[in-house]
Amino acid sequence: MKNTWLRKLLLSCLISSTFLTPALAEKSIKLANALSKESHYGVAATALEESLKQALPEKFKVEHFANSALGGEREVIEGVQLGTIDAAILSTGAVLNFVPQVGVLDIPFLFKDLAHARSILDGKIGQQMLEEFPKRNIIALAWGDQGFRHITNNKLVIKTPTDTKSLKIRTTENPVHIMAFKHLGILATPMAWPEVQPALQQGTVDGQENPISVIASMKLNQVQKHLALTGHVYSPALVIFSPSFYNSLTSAEKNTLKIASQDAAKAMRKFVDEIEQSGIASLKEAGMIVTEDVDKQAFANIVKEIYPEYYKRYSKDLIEQIVAQ
Length: 325
Ligand code: PAF
What we know:
Elements: H1 2-20, E1 27-33, H2 40-55, E2 60-65, H3 73-82, E3 87-91, H4 114-122, H5 124-130, E4 139-153, H6 161-164, E5 168-171, H7 175-183, E6 187-190, H8 196-202, E7 207-211, H9 212-217, E8 226-241, H10 243-246, H11 251-285, E9 289-291, H12 296-304, H13 307-314, H14 316-324
Parallel strand pairs: 1-2, 1-3, 5-6, 5-7, 8-9
Antiparallel strand pairs: 3-8, 4-7, 4-8
Helix pairs in contact: 2-11, 13-14
Residues 34-35, 73, 90-91, 93, 172, 193, 210, 214, 235 line the site of pantoate.
């Protein structure tokens, strides 16, 4: 008698958890990014969520951690490796410290324009590079980008490399970038992104470098007076996942995640294309002094002097293949 009663109770619990509360079946995805909801990363994060929702309603629940809520990009990559963070949208700023091969894409003055860079990332070289990530305990499913990086500062108008000498500029924690800045005579100061705005405000550094997408969406005009369109290096971005999350999925779910990551990357690139058009005018309106006639060739000529160092690190063949495409 007692047994029958207990069995009925267990059965009804099982039925209600299976049929009446589908929300319990949702897999939560803790998704980190360094920027605001209104940025290219924010737009990409929303596109990822929407794409998953459309393909597999109620399967995934995306929890958004924007504005570096889970730490700087280096910490986020470590969290993804450990599985304490399920996913992230981030720049390659710190990535080469984990997947060294990616550093070749961070070489200044390597790409002619966005179309050139994107054709490399979407082609054999970029896709093969994504396959290197699992060896470092990271799953990388799609390449997005931020645009080309430009220098902002609070001290002076930059037109030639001489103007940048002795400026203290925050850089990402990226040895490939740092080598080039040092060669230009810049006091390169690597710093995690969450520390950058206070450092600019307090004058600990004179400036920083980032694409228009970041400068405009993070309103860096509030802490920086000058913007010089140096376009010195392309800034790729990635959609990554932790192996512990990824490997818990069925192969059909993995496929859906790949498509959602590609949708996120597409949304990111679209945002970048639009803000590259409109961002400079709005930064000028907001009071920034924008220098458009930068002698980019003079900067490139100096940086090209250290290309032999890059050849040693990444193979001359590969670099020449990228340049020639
Ligand atoms: O400068 C950086 O660290 C990156 O470009 C940023 C702003 C965190 C976006 O990935």
